[in-house]
Write a structure and sequence with these properties.
Blueprint lengths: L2 E8 L5 E8 L3 E6 L3 E4 L3 E7 L2 E6 L2 E6 L4 H9 L5 H5 L7 E4 L5 H7 L12 E5 L3 H14 L5 E6 L9 H9 L3 E10 L2 E8 L4
Helix pairs in contact: 4-5
Amino acid sequence: MGRQAKATWIGEHGGAAEVTLHLEAAGLHISGERRARVPRSAWSHVEAADGVVSFEADGQTYRFELGAAAPTWAQALTTPPPALAEKLGVSHGETVAVRGELPLPELDDALADASRVPPWEADVVVVVVRTDAELESLPVWFRECGIGSHVWIVHGKGRASTAPGDNAVREALRSAGWRDTKVSAVADEWSATRYSPAKAS
């Protein structure tokens, strides 16, 4: 889900705008009184001084007043995002089970080093849902496979996607006793949400 904060965008030639900074794997999304998207590969010379974070990107200097959070933001801007394999918890050779066809080469790459095993033996279970019928069948499939740990559901994201989105997945799985515990962006039209069985009261 990334990092988010309210900030004051200090213009290069004076003036200020109240904005919200969203730091994501792909870059920095700025919304509010001024808007911009800065790809992660574009910025350089990140500094924090007197409560202000500054960096250069595409020939422009960006300055944001963040107060005490400035050093933390400067560190976040200079720290590479975790690889998708790390986000999914399969970066150390864990076993994985996959249901459905992976929709992106990035997911294939993330799971390439993990041994494929049946779902009841897997350290990590990844399920791709492309249709409402596939989504509705998941709770029964979980029970049949004896899955009692967390599961990553790869689902649609944004209006351009035809696959069920996060709201549909959340409704179906929460009603079956599963709770969403983590989200990982995958691509413009795909996201992944981790679900775990609710603890017995």
